[in-house]
């Protein structure tokens, strides 16, 4: 099997590879992908540094053309790349194709942004002096991405980095190198100059740590666990570099007595269990007022019975496998913790056998949970959700905000009063009304509050806040 190599200074390199295993069929090796060494990372950073002066001053049409070409190819290959994504991560094929389309849209958006770069000319408070305010690229950017969105998250970090004139050293999650390799290959063939984008695949303990230890990186954008995010922050403070963190979530979905039951159940099922619950925006706390509680639980349970857990690429699959054995053990450990804490297992929680060997887990619903239980406080990152009964809207809002995280939140209600109040008072970066908490658009800011995020928002025009630095220039007329 051919090894998919790292891309360093415009050259494909690497002779030793690690297997990329299909979580829907553990007998299948999706591909062999190179593992970078500490020296490889150093070479990649040096290449990015050498390429920065020319790329940072490149013409906006050149950047536009390359990003547009990349987006066009991703879109044209959406079925192929979506199938690759489904095979390496376990997301259902329709979800995987949808994520691939989103990646293409992100590249197209930032291709347009390259042509919309602008600044300000303002008068000085002093006579005969002009003031120009411009944005310039930050420098060499380290990009570290997670396994749950193998093509969309790399796209929404790499595309703006390149759009604004930065060079990149890119480390994808070692569980899902396939889509990341495809992005690097597409950009390379789209005409990106040597060294502008460097791909270094491998373990976080080797590749990621070497990036954190480098004093050359001007910024690191990271999506992943809270623990690793803290290490990124500490190392960045030590080296005086800019950093952007997207970490965990324990997102609430509030269901009020006046909610449309069908809308509430659909939003909750999508939020908690689709993509196998492996989304930082997933709702694992379903906070339900007592007047609708029993009807909601009964309806959601019936909904869960209709969801088919199976091979990600199989037609009719609603929920694919958990990404790997380690995450599956985390999920099942939390299910046992929930039982021990006194929550009632209302549905699921069992391992499932299918035609192909994989990490299959029933969607799991707890009731009679409290907001103080570990299953209500800690991010599980699997198809596990808990229903918390509350008295009224005021208690629901207080419970929703009682979390160390603040990424996404949702409410199901037909009350304009409560919807408006919740949007204003929910302590989350993104708020959904009668919608799943996990659906976000590519052209608007993404990010959270409290322990979920740190630094400027991702996506849309707000991405410029991280990937550029502001310069103010004065000129005597």
Write up what this structure looks like:
By secondary structure, the chain is an alpha/beta fold. It folds into two domains: 270 residues, Aldehyde Dehydrogenase, Chain A, domain 1; 183 residues, 3-Layer(aba) Sandwich (Aldehyde Dehydrogenase, Chain A, domain 2). It is built from 15 helices and 25 strands. The strands form seven sheets. It has a seven-stranded mixed beta sheet with strand order 15-18-19-14-13-21-22, with helices on both faces. A six-stranded mixed beta sheet has the order 10-9-8-11-12-24, sandwiched between helices. The longest helix is centred in the N-terminal third of the chain and has 22 residues. The chain is globular and about 70 Å long. 53% of the residues are buried.
Lay out the secondary structure.
Blueprint: E1 3-4, E2 6-8, E3 11-13, E4 17-22, E5 25-34, H1 38-56, H2 60-76, H3 78-89, H4 93-114, E6 120-123, E7 129-137, E8 140-144, H5 152-163, E9 167-171, H6 177-189, E10 197-199, H7 204-213, E11 219-223, H8 226-239, E12 242-246, E13 251-255, H9 261-273, E14 283-289, H10 290-305, H11 325-341, E15 344-347, E16 351-352, E17 360-361, E18 364-369, H12 374-377, E19 384-390, H13 393-401, E20 405-406, E21 408-412, H14 416-425, E22 430-433, E23 449-450, E24 453-454, H15 464-467, E25 468-476
Parallel strand pairs: 1-5, 8-9, 8-11, 9-10, 11-12, 13-14, 13-21, 14-19, 18-19, 21-22
Antiparallel strand pairs: 2-3, 4-5, 6-7, 7-25, 12-24, 15-18, 16-17, 20-23
Helix pairs in contact: 1-7, 2-4, 3-4, 3-6, 4-5, 9-10
């Amino acid at each position: 099997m051919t090894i998919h190599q790292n891309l360093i200074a415009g050259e494909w390199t690497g002779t030793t590879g690690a297997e990329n295993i299909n979580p829907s069929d553990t007998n299948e090796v999706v591909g062999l992908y190179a593992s970078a060494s500490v020296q490889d990372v150093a070479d990649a950073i040096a290449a990015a540094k050498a390429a920065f002066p020319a790329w940072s001053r490149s013409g906006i049409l050149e950047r536009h053309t390359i990003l547009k070409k990349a987006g066009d190819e991703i879109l044209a290959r959406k079925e192929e790349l979506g199938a690759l994504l489904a095979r390496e991560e376990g997301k259902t094929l329709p979800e995987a194709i949808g994520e691939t389309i989103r990646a293409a849209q992100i590249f197209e958006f930032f291709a347009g942004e390259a042509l919309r770069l602008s600044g300000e000319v303002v008068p000085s408070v002093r006579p005969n002096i002009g003031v120009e305010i411009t944005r310039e690229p930050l420098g060499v950017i380290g990009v570290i991405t997670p396994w749950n969105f193998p093509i969309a998250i790399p796209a929404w970090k790499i595309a703006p980095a390149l759009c604004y004139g930065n060079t990149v050293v890119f480390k994808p999650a070692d569980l899902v190198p396939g889509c990341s390799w495809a992005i690097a290959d597409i950009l390379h063939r789209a005409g990106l100059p040597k060294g502008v984008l460097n791909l270094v695949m491998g373990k976080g303990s080797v590749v990621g740590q070497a990036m954190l230890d480098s004093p050359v990186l001007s910024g690191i954008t990271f999506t992943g666990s809270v623990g690793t995010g803290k290490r990124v922050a500490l190392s960045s403070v030590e080296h005086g570099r800019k950093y952007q963190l997207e970490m965990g979530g324990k997102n609430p979905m509030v269901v009020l007595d006046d909610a449309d039951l069908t809308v509430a159940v659909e939003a909750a099922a999508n939020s908690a269990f689709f993509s196998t619950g492996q989304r930082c925006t997933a709702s694992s706390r379903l906070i339900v007022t007592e007047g609708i509680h029993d009807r909601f639980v009964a309806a959601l349970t019936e909904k869960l019975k209709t969801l088919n857990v199976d091979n990600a690429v199989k037609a009719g699959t609603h929920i694919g496998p958990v990404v790997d054995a380690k995450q599956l053990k985390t999920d099942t450990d939390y299910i046992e913790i929930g039982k021990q804490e006194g929550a009632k297992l209302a549905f699921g929680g069992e391992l499932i056998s299918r035609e192909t060997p994989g990490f299959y887990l029933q969607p799991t619903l707890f009731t009679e949970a409290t907001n103080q239980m570990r299953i209500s406080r800690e991010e599980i990152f699997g198809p596990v959700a808990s229903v918390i009964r509350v008295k009224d809207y005021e208690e629901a809002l207080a419970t929703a905000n009682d979390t160390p995280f603040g990424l996404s939140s949702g409410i199901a209600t037909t009350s304009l009063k409560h919807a408006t109040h919740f949007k204003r008072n929910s302590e989350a970066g993104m708020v959904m009304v009668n919608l799943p908490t996990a659906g976000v658009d590519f052209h608007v800011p993404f990010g959270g509050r409290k322990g979920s995020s740190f630094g400027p928002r991702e996506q849309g025009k707000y991405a410029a806040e991280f990937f550029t630095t502001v310069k103010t220039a004065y000129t005597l007329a």
